[in-house]
Amino acid sequence: MSDTSTHTHRDLSIDQQLALRTAAARLGREFDGTYGTQTIERFLHTSYDQFANRSTVPNFLPLLAERFARQRLQALARVEGHHRDGKPVVLFLCTHNAGRSQMALGFFTRLAGDRAIAWSGGSEPGTEINRAAVAAMAERGIDITGEYPKPWTDEIVRAATVVVTMGCGDACPIFPGTRYENWDLDDPAGQSVEVVRPVRDEIERRVRTLLDELDVAVAR
Length: 220
Hints:
Elements: H1 14-30, H2 37-52, H3 61-79, E1 89-94, H4 100-112, E2 117-122, H5 131-138, H6 154-159, E3 162-166, E4 179-182, H7 193-213
Parallel strand pairs: 1-2, 1-3, 3-4
Helix pairs in contact: 1-2, 1-3, 2-3, 4-7, 5-7
């Protein structure tokens, strides 16, 4: 790892150092010709920082950092005009990125397929996905257990065609020229599956409406 990393070798185990070096190499191959080693390592290490202070599973930190760094680099490539595929990008934001925004992401990804892109984030990311939300989505055949609470960053917000906010209030980022929608939905935090089901169903309805407005064909 480079000397510009915010981590010293004393901060990381040997396994974590190796995992981050491997992650940097993978990202380097993926973004070859777009971003250099210094940029990739900076995004990887700052992504690691986002999770280091609140993760309950330290061994997963390099994997989370790699996934988040990849998303951030993809967003940056769109902002800087390196990647133009014409697909709309929707960013779902809530407080903990554990319930509402994750359900919206799940529905959007299932219904849009590869015809549009969706990301999610939180103003105060939690440590795990809401279990009632996971169960409610499983009832609809959508598995969101592979997702994880994460923050948002400027490049992710700037890359979005539409930013959908759900209860993050004044903490939600505002960038001129970006379309914003606020969905007033109950927070599933601490609720039972029975309470979450109506929220889930309203989210699906709104996601379908949004996809129709974006002229994205819905998967059958």
